[in-house]
Amino acid sequence: MSSTASGLVLGFLLATAYGAAFHLIVGGRPRKILLYILAAWVGFTLGHFIGDLIGIEAFQLGAVHLLAASLGAWIALVFSWFLSAREA
Fold first, then answer.
1. Phi and psi at residue 28, in whole multiples of 5°?
2. Confidence label for 85 from pLDDT (cuts 50, 70 and 90)
3. pLDDT digits (tens, 9 = 90+) for 41-64
4. Distance (Å, whole) CA 65 – CA 79
5. Neighbouring residues of 18: CB distance < 8 A, sequence distance ≥ 6
6. HSE-CB of 1 using CA atoms within 13 angstroms
7. What's the sign of the alpha-carbon dihedral 27, 39, 13, 50?
8. What's the rounded Cα separation, in Å, for the pair 43 and 16?
């Protein structure tokens, strides 16, 4: 498996775990887990690319910028939680 493919799988699994953990922490309807997982995927991806763009090398695993990507995922999760709470 190439490093790009393994990085993609790692990012997908981590972001999914972040979304599921966030849903476990904040609770809510079962449908919201889809929102949280999608937000974590988008945030993880954006965080990774921003980390690559500005050159954050801390906690890099292969091609994945774990620190920046994880931070992006958690920011997106909190943002999605805030927006979905305002709708209700």
1. 115, 180
2. confident
3. 999 999 999 999 998 888 888 888
4. 21
5. 40, 44, 70, 73, 74, 77
6. 9
7. negative
8. 11
pLDDT tens digits for range 3-24: 778 888 999 999 999 999 999 9
CB 39 within 8 A of CB 80: yes
Q: How many domains does the chain have?
A: 1
| Domain housing 25 | 3-87
> Position of tokens 């695993």?
61
Instruction: Yes or no: say if 32 and 41 are a contact pair by the CB < 8 Å rule.
Output: no
